[in-house]
Recover the amino acids of this structure.
């Protein structure tokens, strides 16, 4: 009976190691197919609207939060417009230069068609 228990324990450990190895292999293959890029280039950011998280104006730097491919990315934001951005304001990204987003107020895009 002791011999049967020992064989059962060895078989259980072997099956556990085999199944664990298969799971690790599948996860390894799955993760290789996922591409993660924290340095998304200019073409992907220009034209996007972000939310101001740290206030700024043309004399200072702030921070905006952008939704990119299902994830949130925060960037340093600067502007040359005479506008004081407050937290919660929408900012349109015009270009990205040296990891800084140059923005204008998204409200500048709203045209007055009441003529």
């Amino acid at each position: 009976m002791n011999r049967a228990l020992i064989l059962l324990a060895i078989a259980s450990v072997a099956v556990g190691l085999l199944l664990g190895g298969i799971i690790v292999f599948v996860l390894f293959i799955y993760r290789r197919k996922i591409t993660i890029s924290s340095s998304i280039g200019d073409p992907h950011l220009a034209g996007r609207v972000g939310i101001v998280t740290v206030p700024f104006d043309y004399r200072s730097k702030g921070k905006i939060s952008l939704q990119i491919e299902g994830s949130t990315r925060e960037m340093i934001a600067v502007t040359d417009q005479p506008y004081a951005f407050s937290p919660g304001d929408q900012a349109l990204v015009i270009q990205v230069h040296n990891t800084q987003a140059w923005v204008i107020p998204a409200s500048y895009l709203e045209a007055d068609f009441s003529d």
